[in-house]
Amino acid sequence: MPPPRPPRQAEAAARWWASPTASALLAAAQHSWTAAVPALPGGQVRLCLRPTADWPALAAGAPFASSHLLHREGTAWSGAWRADEAVWPLAAQSVSRIDLCFVLEQASDPLALLSEAVRVLCPEGRLLVLGLNPCGTARWRWARQGVRSLPPARVAGWLDAAGLVRLDERRLGPRWRLPVAATLPAEGGPGRVAWALLATRRDPTPTPLRLARPRWRPNPGTSLA
Questions:
Q1: Domains along the chain with CATH numbers
Q2: Residue 26 CB partners (closer than 8 Å, separation 6+)
Q3: Residues 47-51: contacts with CB under 8 Å, at least 24 apart
Q4: d(CA 103, CA 90)
Q5: In what order do the strands lie in the sheet with 76-79?
Q6: Checking CA distances to 169, which of 84, 100, 191, 200 falls within 20 to 30 Å?
Q7: 80-118 pLDDT per residue, tens
Q8: Distance CA 128, CA 147 (A)
Q9: Three-state secondary structure string covering the chain
Q10: In whole angstroms, what is the distance from residue 4 CA to residue 80 CA?
Q11: What pLDDT, on the 0 to 100 scale, is given for residue 221?
């Protein structure tokens, strides 16, 4: 678990997340994901976690029976319902799609938060994680603001250890400032402001039983009459 941040550092980080610069850069990264990736399958329940209440949600791209938007409020979640950071009022394997939009960086225990998402993800469901790129050029915009960033390789390792199968990994968004929308590439390059990981749960199917050979076989030429 990362050490707790001093109050002033936490306040500076909260201000950065609420700033127009952060919302513009990372909204562009989210748009890049939507533009670059084919629509994901729908399902019963969709859950989208965001850093602030006014943060834009990713387009669903497919129908869901119900969708729940949550945002950080202190060290907990608020919105469709209230919950602790890594303890959600949801049954195991009950959510078809989970979007973690730049929320691991603010978590007091990112691994615990990700583990809770894995717990509620249903078989063949999709878990999308968006994060700040610690190697991106734009890291200098938040490096002195008390904002943490996680290497995508570390999060990918957590997903692998949890038994999920990674489906896609990308670098997204601008490098430093917002370009003209028409010239913004969908993805690519280590200098991008953000990264994305898409994973799914594929529980192993039971191994089919082999048909047992009969223990008794008639000898050639024998009759059952």
A1: 7-200 (3.40.50)
A2: 102, 130, 132, 173, 193, 194
A3: 47/90, 47/95, 47/97, 47/98, 47/99, 47/120, 48/98, 48/99, 48/101, 49/77, 49/98, 49/99, 49/100, 49/101, 49/103, 50/101, 50/102, 50/103, 51/17, 51/101, 51/102, 51/103, 51/105, 51/106
A4: 19
A5: 83-84, 76-79, 64-73, 43-50, 95-101, 121-132, 194-200, 165-172
A6: 84
A7: 999 999 999 999 999 999 999 999 999 999 999 999 999
A8: 21
A9: CCCCCCHHHHHHHHHHHCCHHHHHHHHHHHHHHHHHCCCCCCEEEEEEEECCCCCCCCCCCCCEEEEEEEEEECCEEEECCCEECCECCCCCCCEEEEEEECCHHHCCCHHHHHHHHHHHEEEEEEEEEEEECCCCHHHHHCCCCCCCCCCHHHHHHHHHHCCCEEEEEEEECCCCCCCCHHHCCCECCCCCCEEEEEEECCCCCCCCCCCCCCCCCCCCCCCCC
A10: 27
A11: 54
Cα(180)–Cα(141) distance, rounded to whole angstroms? 20
Q: Which residue has the higher pLDDT, 147 or 209?
A: 147
Q: Which amino acid is at 131?
A: G
Split at pLDDT 50, 70, 90, the class of 210 is: low
Per-residue pLDDT tens for 120-134?
Answer: 999 999 999 999 998
